[in-house]
Amino acid sequence: MSKLIVSDLKDLKGKKVLVRVDFNVPIKDGVIGDDNRVKAALPTIKYITDNGGKAILFSHLGRVKTEEDKAKLSLRPVAEHLADLLGKKVTFVPATRGAQLEEAIAEMEDGDVLVVENTRFEDLDGKKESGNDPELGKYWASLGDVFVNDAFGTAHRAHASNVGIASNMDQAAAGFLLEKEIKFLGEAVDTPEHPFVAILGGAKVSDKIGVIEHLLDKADKIIVGGGMTYTFYAAKGIKIGNSLVEEDKIDLAKELLAKAGDKIVLPVDNVCATEFNNDAPTKVFEGDIEDGYMALDIGPKSVELFKDVLKDAKTVVWNGPMGVFEMPNFAKGTLGVGEFLGTLSDATTIVGGGDSTAAVNELGVAEKLTHISTGGGASLEYLEGKTLPGIAAVSNK
After folding, report:
1. Do residues 61 and 75 touch, judged by C-beta distance below 8 A?
2. More exposed terminus of the chain, fewer Cβ within 10 Å: N or C?
């Protein structure tokens, strides 16, 4: 069933358009570290303002648990950066409700942009935003005429600023970014072109069980890397030394391996060290890992094996790193996989999750890939086949 898209809203002139964006960006000392999420929202914002709408933007930033958090987590720096990116004035309102916000909205002219303060400031008083407080959703909805959700990063959560507003409006449309996420992730999982290969990394099997189970029937191969490898090794009776393992998931890993046949592809060698430290001396083990050593990355033979599995793929979805990506000496496996993905010009290549995204950005291959998802947790739940509340709340055409 297709969703209502912002471009279906033809008569926006003079309308107050409430937009849930994802401006949850890293900020240190008032400086934005990575503005990709802000840039990703520009097409939707510009469509609204170019068509005479008044864009009123809502976003959360970080987790707000104390009054001190408010000082560090204001959206003001993001609003100022947005003004630079748009090349026009952006009004910032340092409030989430009340007269100051209402008056600022009343003064808006067609084509204006306004940013509301961090929606999670409402969490200090009983988690009203993240708990989807009905009164708050209703209040925010009362500030506008139309709602557009363009925040895929929070689509797996029912918050007052996405589901709460949408449920109090006649129409809720998806922004261009949300539309793109639905299109690429949805098509990749539901109607992939084969061979379809999923690459799953990260520390825990428990985080990815749902994805593995959902994709076993759909994917031709599932490449497993990262810390969860060693729970599968343990299930196969391969010695793992001091490597990360989820003891309570070994039996489940055995079941998944039995069900998968040769679909699950595990690393064949591992870069190991005696301590969790970038500068620790390393040793590569094929098969059993000696006691005292822990695996911190996949080895060179595994990178070659994974490339061989990927070379004929027509659809690839990647979520999660192959090793301890934040340590340069154990990032080679992740970077090796990312670099190879950039060469697959005939395939639909989709990347989701923080470390995988960081890897392709670091390599400069991001523009060679089909789609980079803006939501780690949301893309994971989408790959599990779950219904995401933020998408379900968007009106059908």
Report:
1. yes
2. N
The 10s digit of each residue's pLDDT in 228-238 is: 999 999 999 99
pTM of the model: 0.83
Domain 6-177 has CATH 3.40.50.1260: yes
The backbone torsions φ and ψ at residue 343, rounded to the nearest 5 degrees and listed phi first, read -95, -10
| Backbone CA torsion sign across 5, 153, 331, 316 | negative
Q: Which residues contact 7 (CB under 8 A, 6 or more apart)?
A: 47, 176
The boundaries of every CATH 3.40.50.1260 domain in the chain are 6-177, 184-383
Q: Under 8 Å CB-to-CB from 147, ≥6 apart: which residues? A: 17, 18, 19, 20, 141, 165, 166, 169, 171, 172, 173
CA dist., res. 193 & res. 323, Å (int): 28
CATH number of 184-383: 3.40.50.1260
Catalytic residues: 37, 204, 354, 377
**260-to-82, 106, 263, 265, 394 alpha-carbon distances in Å:** 47, 59, 5, 10, 36
Quick: pLDDT tens for 53-67: 999 999 999 999 988
For residue 167, what are its two tokens?
A: 């449920």
351 strand-pairing partners = 318, 372
Look up residue 3 and give its DSSP letter: B
